[in-house]
Design brief:
Elements lengths: L3 E2 L4 H15 L15 H11 L5 H21 L3 E6 L5 H9 L5 E6 L2 H14 L8 E2 L17 E6 L9 H15 L4 E7 L4 H7 L6 H16 L9 E8 L4 E8 L3 E5 L2 E5 L4 E8 L3 H9 L3 E8 L5 E8 L10 H8 L1 E4 L2
Parallel strand pairs: 1-4, 2-3, 2-5, 3-4, 5-6, 12-14
Antiparallel strand pairs: 6-13, 7-8, 8-11, 9-10, 12-13
Helix pairs in contact: 2-8, 3-4
The structure holds N,N,N-trimethyl-histidine (AVJ).
Length: about 350
């Protein structure tokens, strides 16, 4: 297993966190980028979230993969260079790797360094003939791919978990345009996309009875206290998750229970009572809506797998070559173009 380090040294990483926090907390709607959830404690809490009864995405996506991983691997084809956006810690990756024919290499890309290298080491031990090339990088920014030990027949990006939902519409198009460039014409994109559903089920999934998601959210304040010399009083903030129909997303916030002042170093941050910090957007899609979005990034939906309750989808897309720009719009040809398979 070769390790590729393209991230800035930790103090630069701290500088970036500090700059992003000061910028976000000075906006009219205070906000913090959700990528900062995933320090060691945050990643541990997120693993707990995935096991919660209310949080259906993980187990539903797993069920779809268990039922259709063979199909998905056949779509990706043999000798594919598989790039995963995320550390690949989940069982999902293994279900796919188990069915892939002679992958040329596997490249997990993640911002959480410890999590990335721990997982890559375990994968390298479990798949001794697979070239595991972990990339410590921010997949929403541009990065260079490591050279696989032997040429790949094709490139594919795997993006599970509906993390694509964290991006705004413009952000999702930019990310998917980056995927289209990375995999090249005819290359592939396999993505988990959470679907629109009853808002009460969505709000429960992001505000579980055990309070794990609340702890995951509040951990962001704890992280600023320990890494940015801040003094947020976690007892004075409340977790809130709300479905925003107009924007088609769940919004997570930390609401200030009182009028208060917090400090990041010498910088004062004022909070009115009831004022919030927005910490995450999680967009939910219809199948047609996602196909339209992907098309604007030069990706066409070819296959869709959902569970029988249509809570979640895994979608296989292909990057168009420039000449296909004027082809049929996925929305119109959806039924015909993209064969749907529903998990039994
Ligand atoms: C990892 C981004 C897919 O948005 O559902 C879980 C993160 N936030 N509970 C999501 C999350 C609150 C999760 N993603």
């Amino acid at each position: 297993m070769a390790a590729i380090l393209t991230r800035p040294p930790p103090d630069l990483e701290r500088e970036r966190f500090l700059a992003d926090a000061l910028h976000g907390l000075c906006l009219p709607q205070k906000s913090l980028p959700c990528k900062y959830f995933y320090d060691a404690e945050g990643s541990k809490l997120f693993d707990q979230i995935c096991a919660l009864p209310e949080y259906y995405p993980t187990r539903t996506e797993l069920g779809i993969l268990r039922a259709h991983a063979g199909d998905m691997a056949a779509c990706l084809g043999p000798e594919t260079l598989l790039v995963e956006y995320g550390s690949g810690s989940s069982v999902k990756t293994r279900l796919l790797l188990d069915r892939l024919a002679r992958p040329s290499a596997y490249v997990p890309v993640d911002i959480s360094r410890e999590h990335l290298f721990e997982t890559a080491l375990a994968l390298g031990l479990d798949y001794p003939s697979l070239a595991v090339l972990p990339l410590w990088a921010d997949f929403s920014a541009s990065f260079a791919l490591p050279r696989p030990p032997w040429p790949a027949a094709r490139r594919a990006v795997y993006f599970p978990g509906s993390t694509i939902g964290n991006f705004s519409e413009a952000g999702a198009i930019a990310l998917m345009s980056g995927v289209a460039r990375l995999v090249g014409p005819g290359g592939a994109f396999l993505v988990g996309v959470d679907l629109k559903k009853d808002p009460r089920a969505l709000e429960r999934a992001y505000d579980d009875a055990a309070g794990v998601t609340a702890a995951f959210n509040l951990n962001l304040l704890a992280r600023m206290n320990s890494e940015l010399d801040a003094d947020f009083d976690l007892r004075r903030f409340r977790h809130r998750a709300v479905w925003t129909p107009g924007a088609g997303r769940i919004e997570m916030h930390l609401v200030s229970e009182i009028e208060q002042v917090a400090h990041i170093g010498a910088t004062e941050i004022h909070f009115a009572r009831g004022e919030s910090i927005c910490t995450e957007h999680s967009h939910k899609y219809t199948l047609e809506g996602f196909a339209r979005l992907a098309r604007r990034a030069g990706l066409v939906v070819r296959r869709v797998w959902t569970d029988s309750a249509r809570l979640f989808s895994v979608q296989y897309l292909e990057a168009q070559s420039a000449s296909h720009e004027s082809g049929p719009s996925p929305a119109r040809g959806f039924g015909r173009l993209a064969r749907r398979a529903t998990e039994p």
